[in-house]
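pls read this stuff:
=====
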Amino acid sequence: MSAVVDPLDKIMSWSAAAKWRQSRAGQGAVVFTNGVFDLLHPGHIDVLLGARQQGDALVVGINSDDSVRRLKGPDRPVRVVAERCYVLAALEMVDTVVVFEQDTPLDLIQALKPDVLVKGGDYDADRVVGAPEVRGWGGKVVIIPLTPGHSTTTTIERLRAR
């Protein structure tokens, strides 16, 4: 039986994540994906599973609350960043969770230099933030098809309609 990992141990600062990344050199491909992950739903799980299947470790970049408000509006996020991080870090397929304050994860991607960059099917591989950089150091970009009928925005709208 494998040991249970405390989710809090998987939530890292940028510097801790960079050290973790360096410690993984030669231990297989590190995959990076990112998002808000406000209300976790089956579509999120499918992207995270698909991302993890692309390599040996999965880093999830998560937008800070301020970043989410700038991108999604004043009513988001529904859950604060600490809660969103904790839920993601509790998932077995996630190895590390790192918060970024910027509106895009480009600086974090450049700091961690993942081998694989993954986004959901609502993105085009050539327009993914960080794609040129990841390809530039020999990595690849993978798009995971979306799971039909699942989106946080739709879920929030449905709840408000009730």
In short: Residues 42-52 form the longest helix (11 residues).
